[in-house]
């Protein structure tokens, strides 16, 4: 048994219960974790819950067939290998499917050793499996150290990270897409750690945060005297990333004049500092990120098409937080642990109703906003469990307690009496007259709420009539 086959999850799809049982027994005997289902629809549902490493499916299935299942998987999870089992009558279809990306097909009856060999090949070429445990990794020296700081349990993120792990081994340029606050730089750093360049530098620069007149010098460096104020030569960030990874955040904000120079760096693998007469060789792997629609920017002439295709060799898209809500409790707990240590406060987590509010909130700022909410809540809490009120405050949600009618009436009545006594400086006669109640009834109301007129008098003395 190879290391790749250790505890790999295989999804088997066949409507023949005998074949399904036989395949499950054989695969389990080789150490695989097997999920067996009888239809394409059930297979897609299982994939959404727990992504397998390999799918083995019969072509002939009730309802949606195996080829249709493959098409759906290819559209949503292109890195997931699919092996088709076919009868002789469907061989032409299987061959056609192979040309579209099916990992392989076997004709029935097939030899079990042949199937195991094919699965082994798929595992060796596919993205390494991520552990089933929630992903919160730190420096521990294990094979998942590259995931440090990335927290998830959702299948959506598991699939994305499997793809990221696979492309990290190449030197291809990667364009990371995602809304602001989704963690594009965090993902870029993870890809760097998982790559052969992990021992080299990781250099990040936000193209939208540096003025245009300074960005060229920051990226490519300059020689002494290149412009006013250039008292000494300076190495640019592209050169600083030599033998490592350069991450250009918000690449869509890069001025057109610099896009041309960046394209030359990617094409010729050389960089020429501002004011220099000679270019210098450079060896960098480029990762870039944007929240902008680059297709629209190209259509408007704001982004070069030739640069776009150099950057977008592989595209990874980070989902917004509201599309991975199952990760919110885990992220919140992880951030509480970080912030509690930062402030030195013994905070255990969120009260149940507070956690429920976090899970159901709108998150326009995504993971970055969640961290800010957690930090504010931790800073203000005086209890080990963060209450709902602090979460609502941090989310800027108007608070409204769920009171029954009797509780709401009692609270209103007490507040009303307090305001009246404040207004009349504790004079019961005046307060009763404003309330349109006789003094006896008014005193009864005060007694009900444990209020005494003297509490509201400036000198704290005198009778209730004054």
Report on the structure:
The protein has 4 domains: 6-125, 3-Layer(aba) Sandwich (Rossmann fold), CATH 3.40.50; 145-317, P-loop containing nucleotide triphosphate hydrolases (Rossmann fold); 322-395, Helicase, Ruva Protein, domain 3 (Orthogonal Bundle), CATH 1.10.8; 405-456, no CATH class. The protein contains 19 helices and 16 strands. The longest helix is centred in the last third of the chain and has 19 residues, at 405-423. Residues 1-6 and 131-142 have low confidence and may be disordered. It has helices at 17-29, 40-49, 66-76, 91-100, 112-125, 155-168, 184-194, 212-220, 237-240, 256-268, 294-299, 305-311, 328-343, 352-360, 366-380, 388-395, 405-423, 428-435, 439-448; strands at residues 9-13, 33-37, 54-58, 82-86, 104-107, 174-177, 202-206, 221-222, 234-235, 245-249, 270-271, 280-281, 285-290, 314-317, 349-350, 385-386. By secondary structure, the chain is of the alpha/beta class.
What are the defining features of this structure?
466 residues; alpha/beta; Rossmann fold; Helicase, Ruva Protein, domain 3; 4 domains; five-stranded parallel beta sheet; 16 strands; 13% strand; flat; disordered N terminus
Topology (SSEs and partners):
Elements: E1 9-13, H1 17-29, E2 33-37, H2 40-49, E3 54-58, H3 66-76, E4 82-86, H4 91-100, E5 104-107, H5 112-125, H6 155-168, E6 174-177, H7 184-194, E7 202-206, H8 212-220, E8 221-222, E9 234-235, H9 237-240, E10 245-249, H10 256-268, E11 270-271, E12 280-281, E13 285-290, H11 294-299, H12 305-311, E14 314-317, H13 328-343, E15 349-350, H14 352-360, H15 366-380, E16 385-386, H16 388-395, H17 405-423, H18 428-435, H19 439-448
Parallel strand pairs: 1-2, 1-3, 3-4, 4-5, 6-13, 6-14, 7-10, 10-13, 15-16
Antiparallel strand pairs: 8-9, 11-12
